[in-house]
Amino acid sequence: MVGITSYGGYIPLHRLSREEFFRAWGGFAMPGERAVANFDEDSVTMATEAAIDCMKGIDPKTVDGLFFATTTSPYREKQCSAIISVALDLGREIRTADFTGSLRAGTIAIASAMDAINAGAAKSIMVTAADLRLGAPAGDFEQALGDGGAALLLGEKGVIATIEGSYSISDDFSGVWRSDADTFVRTWEDRMVLDEGYSAVLPEAISGLMKKYNLAPGDFAKVVYDTPTDIRRHARVTGGLKFDAAQLQDPLFMTVGNTGAALAMMMLVAALEEAKPGDRILFASYGNGADAFVLQVTPEIEKVRDRRGIKNHLASKRMLALIPVRSHHNGSLNPKAHYQREITMEQVLGAPIIAWPLGLFDCCGVSDGAAAAIVVRAEDAKKFREDPVYVKALQICVGPGEGQLSTVYDYTHVEETYRAGLAAYAEAGISDPRKEISMAEVHDCFSITEATIMEDLQFSPRGRVKEDLEAGTFTLEGDLPVQPDGGLKCFGHPIGASGLRMMYEMYLQLQGRAGPRQIKNPQLGLTHNMGGQPGACTVSCLIVGL
Amino acid sequence: MIGIRSYGAYIPYYRLSRSEIAKTWGGPALPGEKAVANQDEDSITMAVEAAFDCTRGIDGANIDGLFFASTTSPYKEKQCSTIIATVLDMGKEIRTADFADCLRAGTTALRAALDAVKAGSARNILVTAADCRLAYPYSMLEQSLGDAAACFLIGDSDVAVEIEDCLSLSYEITDVWRTDEDDFVREWEERWVTMYGYSQNVEEAASAIMKRNGLTARDFAKAVIYGPDPRSHAALVRRLGFEENQVQDTLFATVGNTGTPSALLMLVAALEEAKAGDSILFASYGDGADAFILKVTEQIERIKERRGVKRHLASKALLSSYGKYLSFRNLVQLPPQASLRGTGSATIMWRTKNWVLSCHASKCRKCGLITYPIQRVCYGCQAKDDYDEISLSREKGTLFTFSLDNLASAGINPPIIQSVVRFQGATQFYCMMTDCEPNEVRVDMPVEMTLRRLHEGANFHNYFWKCRPPREGG
Amino acid sequence: MESIRDKVAIIGMGCTKFGELWEKGADDLIIEAAYEAYEDAGIDPNDIQAAWVGTVASGMMGECLSTPLKLRNIPVTHVENACATGHEALRNACFAVASGMYDIVLALGFEKLKDTGLGGLGIGRGLHPTLEMRRTAPGTFAFIATRYFHTYGLTPEQGKQTIAKIAVKNHHNGSLHPKAHFRREVTLEQVINAPIIAWPLGLFDCCPTTDGAAAAIVVPAAMAKKFREDPIYIKGIGLSSAQLLPHFRPNFGWTSFTVNKEASRQAYEQAGIKDPRKEISVACVHDCFTITELVIYEDLGFSPVGRAKEDVDAGTFTLEGELPIQSDGGLKSFGHPIGASGLRMTYETYKQLQGKCDVRQIKNARLGLSHTLGGPPQVSCVTIVGNSLG
Fold first, then answer.
1. Three-state DSSP class for residue A370
2. Domain span including residue A504
3. Fewer CB in a 10 Å sphere around the end CB: N or C, chain C?
């Protein structure tokens, strides 16, 4: 059976602590260090180093193919595998090929090498991968990426790990890319890239493989797959597949960084260094699709322990120095919310500052969404349903630019909200809003906005909203529940949708259909929206009731 | 037996006469013309065309792999074979790989496909190769290089060309190259390049494979051997002992040296003329050489309806000037067109790839109306989420109405041909027309769809469909 | 459903000079249009109880109106419905007054287009990165010309000659209007031989890119005579939106627009009009391109389908003709500041019905129609006004 007959690794001597990036650029530092190729190294030299490590004690005459995988080939037109094969003294009558374009070029080359051997077209093929990708200075990639290489010799004799099966999927996706004219790695918005790329496709390939070969998570001694730039995703991505943390192979983030097309193979080399005969290993790699393999370690493994591999290369290094709460609770009860997890007071206060004094959790999310309503004349409403919700007041108020123009604006209230409230209360015949309004959804784009709205809408006396907040007046169980659905804080603010999303909650509450968020016997609900800047904004204020 | 089940080719519509280049720069002109990709074409779009040609009339369901070979991939990091497979509607559970860096990458991919089918890890694999290499303006190489694509379907049933033997030689030599920073092909001194690179390697590989099989030049109906230029090609085939009538033309006079697809394109041309029982010696070059012994079967007759090389050569237009060529290849800066800058979104292109790349329309299950792009609520009967997706990529349509839009072209000639295409008399598809002279456009003329590169919004390549007058054949 | 007929009235209107107003910003345009309307109605700015403002690309929120005019914390709504935006502002104002919520409201439309450095409206205006790449307005309306000529057997030469006559007529009318952008006549030869913008449409088949604003004061019909002797009453407002970009609409014929037919049907029904060609005294329609005006003749029931050419040749729609269309010169002479156009047209029908149009005055004008067509094209609005109740 075809399998791996030897392995080798290469990590450049120089490492850079990620603290150094912080020192150079400010911002923040990711933990750990990354490997940095010397100025005289490139993907060809690193792949050669790994291949030489892999060839230790092996007669070059027995190797009749060399495949090279990278996304940073030093040539556009000249075969790098031919260069490396000359460095290894492999002779002429061999198969050579360069695989590029994808971060899984390494595993694609492995699959091709297996094919060639299985087809009898070659006996022993060296697959060597290296990458030296550039992240733009001061960006995340600059810290996260690393340089390195790995090599695996494939053949049928002296197999240290048999390749028992494989599974591939292909998926066109511009998540992380470089066009032919790009120097630095480009990426799209990180959550989309990870959710729909790596986190969707890699587990699909792994579970496809396990299904194809009827294997369970517990069948593997080690699970080896690469990581995206965001290291937190690595362990999380297979969470649904129930692997133990102990099964997962370290993605080398703290010590080397993300080495692109070489990463999965480098991790496999590290896994083989520790593997025992009989171990079954799951090996997978992501990049415009994913490849997954099942490997089985044989007793021959003991014969190749003398490689530099990953462990020894890690040990030899030189450091470089550079010269130069409430809403979240309600939202957690709402299956349609954007954020459905609770947060603590400490999290809110300790969150990164966005615009002082507002921190991350003082701001609503950026979300997609839509909401809709069907409106008929009041007298026709009961023809359609028994429990229609009636509009009691419907007012908007637009300011004439006073926020910027007025010399007396106090920056503690929003005049438009106050006036829209007055008009709506007059229209609905409300004299004491705090008593008469049962609940409200207001425009909490930022936490401070909600606080001032409470005063502008006369729910709290001027300057004294703090007392109500401390007393819990506006919680689900309070006198006047505000944001029973979680508000903009949890739903985010798809701008055109928010007003109707608020109305949707009032509608459900008035009809008694709000589930665990249900408020007892609500009579009147208020929704409030604002757009623009205080003093130059549009405010809408609607009141609905049964 | 494993072998070639089908072939396809693509040669761009536009050609540039070599005398036009010589006229600009002075100096001698090589004979003939070279094929020039339109400004909206690249190696991916050309490979797509060749793959469509190759799979004409073939059930795509059994094709489970696609390899792409090129030294002019539009991406350093993003797999082109996946893009092409998505355009061809091949599904997800397939093998894809990009082969690069070497003019021999086409035959390298061919060998990898043969291995994969033989090893049982795939049933049928499409091997596409395309190149669009740039030579320094004013250099002689500028007259030589042409743009094209070729495609083969490798499988183990209905084989039209059996592969009896193959042999690979690897040879490290810096004769013709581009580093990762080079836009233009570089060359070392010509005599050394020919003698120690091309001639020596191909001769060695061809001789070795003939010797290994006990064959001589006389045993072959055709010798399909890559040639960087007619002179060194003629000298090599003579040394190998082939008569003139055995030698497949390099297409130098009609297409030019097309790099990675070059040898494959010659093989397509040879197969167009081949008869059952013919033996073919096939060899390519690039940092070493690949040699193959091929045997044509009676299945060859089944696949003669390709556009291939012959029909693509027949449908063409000469570029009016060297200046047009420079603008097609972005070698001159035209007036900035700020108002034309395309916006891009990886998210939108990903979410809509079924209709953007695979050209899917929605066909209502209730009323049968076909609408492009996919509509969740039927335009005809308002049925919600009740449709099948069908692809329009291979459909022939007619031009329902058009405009020659100078505003859209920002005043740069020729005007954009704004087009509304009708399929099956009802479905409308709005797009631009390409590969057509504005004065040839008529209402109700037949058109077909072609994938082209529109713009670089969001710093990646945004591909979309255009229409064009049908090329010859198919 | 009820009809808007005779429920509300316009008691004052204002309109800026249209043109490439380099020295004026959007705020200047708004102030000039609004204050002319206040003065025409004889009201104080503080009498306004609510306002609707229409603009496509020159402002956001109601604040773009309330800040220049210093409207103090009243409800102001920004509306947008492509080229029908100006009409949409008026339409919403009329319905608000008809509902009884407000007594005196302002509808104002404006657009400041000449701050972009572009000669035209720009290219490729779709939301998708590739779907409508390089779509242009003239390119789209040229589709209609190509297909209309083909369908009704006109050679390109005959077709171009027909639509050129529309340009000549509109330029003539515009030359008589002091607020028009273009105020000069053109000859048939000039139009036909002009540089091609999007074949078959040439330069003079297209309306220019222009700055401008227009405004109306709307009150309940019953209160109108308190303000002036000659208020103008709303007789009908029709609005229709299409379901899919025509470019991708199955079976779409490119010679006529359903939205035009539907919007005019609604308006005629509300106004009680049976034979529009006979009953309408004057019409201002959406001649963004000459070919558009040609198909509008048919869509709005002024000419039989496929036979608008006969009416063009007979001079039916000239100032002296049976049904004068574009008595002010149309978009052809006024340009198309998108948010303003619907109200600019209404300004002309309002003035015609009050008999204040000087050399352009149409005799005994009783009913005036204005029409906007928006998107590429997907929305149409038809507004009919009259100078007497009943």
1. coil
2. 327-545
3. N
Give the chain A residue nearest C78 (alpha carbons).
A538
**What pLDDT, on the 0 to 100 scale, is given for residue A324?**
41
What residue has token string 């090329």? B471
Residue C376, in any domain of the structure? no
pLDDT the model gives residue A400 = 83
Residue of A nearest to C66 (CA): A400
Q: A260, A284 in Cβ contact below 8 A?
A: no
By three-state DSSP, how is residue C276 classified?
helix
DSSP C353: H
pLDDT of residue C126: 65
Do residue A287 and residue A413 come from a single domain? no
Q: Which pLDDT score, from 0 to 100, does residue A334 have?
A: 82
Q: Do C196 and B404 touch (CB under 8 A)?
A: yes
Task: For B221-278, write each residue's pLDDT tens digit.
Answer: 999 999 999 999 999 999 999 999 999 999 999 999 999 999 999 999 999 999 999 9
Can you spell out the DSSP letters for B127-155?
Answer: EEEEE--B--TTSHHHHHB--EEEEEEEE
Neighbours of B47 (CB within 10 A): 32
Taking the Cβ of residue A496 and every Cβ of chain C, the question of whether any pair is shorter than 8 Å is answered with: no
**Residue whose entry in the numeric block shows the structure tokens 């690039």:** B286
The DSSP element (H or E) to which B231 belongs, if any, is helix B230-239
Give dist(CA C358, CA C356) in Å, integer: 6
Residue C40 lies in a domain: yes
Q: What is the DSSP string of B389-407?
A: EEE-TT-EEEEEEEEEETT
A529 touches chain C (CB under 8 A): no
Nearest CA in chain C to A403: C67
Provide the ipTM: 0.88
Asked if A309 and A367 sit in the same domain, the reply is no
pLDDT tens-place string over residues C155-172: 999 999 999 999 999 999
**Shortest CB distance from A399 goes to which of C66, C69, C77?**
C66
Q: What's the CATH code of the domain at A505?
A: 3.40.47.10
Q: Does B118 touch chain A (CB under 8 A)?
A: yes
Among A282, A298, A320, identify where a domain stops. A320
Domains in chain B, ordered, with CATH?
Answer: 3-328 (3.40.47.10), 344-468 (no CATH)
Contacts of B among chains (3+ CB pairs under 8 A): A, C
* Cα–Cα distance for residue pair B240/B200, rounded to 1 Å: 11
Amino acid making up residue A6: S
pLDDT tens column, A168-187: 999 999 899 999 999 999 99
pLDDT in tens, C339-378: 999 999 999 999 999 999 999 999 999 999 999 999 888 9
- Which listed residue (C87, C171, C181, C336) is catalytic? C336
The verdict on residue C325 lying in a domain is: no
What share of chain C in percent tops pLDDT 70? 98
Instruction: Give per-residue pLDDT as tens, C25-68.
Output: 999 999 999 999 999 999 999 999 999 999 999 999 999 999 99
Q: Looking at the structure, tell me whether residues A331 and A316 fall in a common domain.
A: no
Q: What CA–CA distance (Å, rounded) separates A113 from A104? A: 14
Q: How far apart are the first and last CA of chain B?
A: 28
C207 is catalytic: no
Provide the 10 A C-beta neighbour count for residue B382: 12
In the structure encoding, which two tokens stand for residue A401, read together? Answer: 């630019």
Q: Is residue A222 within a helix (H) or strand (E), and if so which, with residue range?
A: strand A222-225
Q: How many domains does chain C fold into? A: 1
Domain that holds residue C107: 8-117+209-218
Contact call for B172 and A108, based on CB within 8 A: no
> Is the same domain home to A482 and A428?
yes
Share of chain C above pLDDT 90, in %: 91
Does one domain contain both A205 and A72? yes
Judging contacts by C-beta atoms under 8 Å, the chain B residues touching residue A173 are 82, 346, 350
The verdict on C74 touching A (C-beta cutoff 8 Å) is: yes
**Interchain CB contact of A289 with B (< 8 Å):** yes
